[in-house]
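Today's session is about reading a structure prediction critically. Students often jump straight to the picture, but the first step is always the sequence itself: look for stretches that repeat, for charged clusters, for runs of hydrophobic residues. Only then move on to the predicted structure, which in these notes is written as discrete structure tokens rather than atom positions. Here is the chain we will use throughout the hour.
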Amino acid sequence: MTCCLPGDSSTLPTSAVSGIEADDAALLALSRKLGDGGRQLEFAVPDAHCAACIRSIETGLTSLTGVSGARVNLTKRRVRVTFDPERIAASALAPAILASGYHTFVLDPAQDRGGDPVLAELVKALAVAGFAAGNIMLFSVSVWSGANEATRDLFHWLSALIALPAIAYSGRIFFRSAWRALRVGRTNMDVPISIGVLLATALSLFEITLSGPHAYFDASTMLLFFLLIGRTLDHLMREKARSAI
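Below is the predicted structure for this chain, in token form.
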């Protein structure tokens, strides 16, 4: 028994099958050449949810003359089709998926060449936070070891110059998530993180404007650094789990 019954393809909206009406030349331009003269196209199948969906889509495609293989990736909701352009038109592939009862649209392989944008953002933020935390810690050690008031104030201001842009850049991952939650009247784990980082930074700025003995820029940047390590590892583990599935 399937978890989702495919609907009648005649009722599918045309907006859900963008690219199907494109001519063969346009579709072939999006395909990948194989060594044996064949081609490979990828289609999104957002309605696929279970093994029965996979079987239905793959059977519908492999029954076509000229299609040598079709493999559905249920995690990414995609189907990769290998076909011979001399024996079957590329424009005949998507209608076969529609005939199985599933919405679809062709995918541009160029979209996947940029790697993982989420991981790239996390790694950049992690590097900035680590750089800032390390340098600010050097200034803090000098202050803790007994620097006089003038030297202490200088090091505090230098720490602020490094910390503020680093916190704005690296912390935006948490600030953005917290704002999305608060905007709809909810909270998530990034809300207390953002509050803690911003309060520590604001208190530090207040202290150094009054030539106070304490500043906590090192705490703000180190907190972001360690949290970003955890967030990056979490993302990597989730991606590995998806690939394994």
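Discussion point for the tutorial: Confidence is low (pLDDT under 50) at residues 4-22.
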